[in-house]
Amino acid sequence: MSSQVKDYYTPEEYLALERQAVDKSEYFSGEIFAMTGASGRHNLVAGNVFAALHIQLRKRPCEIYPSNMLVKVSPTGLYTYPDVVIVCGEPLFDDEQKDTLVNPTVLVEVLSKSTASYDRGEKFEHYRKLKSLAEYLVIAQNKYHVEHYIRQPDNQWLLSETDEIQKTIHLPSIECDLTLADIYDKVEIDK
User: CA-based angle 106:39:34, to the nearest 5?
Assistant: First the structure.
């Protein structure tokens, strides 16, 4: 008797599988997508962002999570693992497991060659549907470059970007500052 690979999964089936899986995967529209491992450089950048913001958010009504926090984009059905997730106010979860956040305030993605177009394009398109999302940071790992998107009152998004190591990025929704020097601390940049 042969077994067939299932082509379509419900969100409930995905979550049941994901909660027991060793490796992380994302989910959209019935399909499960395996995630590849991150490079050392990617992990350094994400860790630096997490560390710099974690210190600033101490004793404030915000929580910061590393890349193991699953985020559900309820309006589109995407389940994904951003590199850094911040929620201010009461965190809301998809179910009683409290491992799938539905109301992030700030999301951070560190780009890799295989995900750069997706993170800037289709994934950000999903993220923009989150009413709670106020800011989105997209960070290169192979060069000094940060894209900072801020939701405007008319639901438009304002982009500012920098590649200057001495620059500071202000995140108004959480009243925090990130310097590129902190983001890229100990990260070897391609010449």
Answer: 75
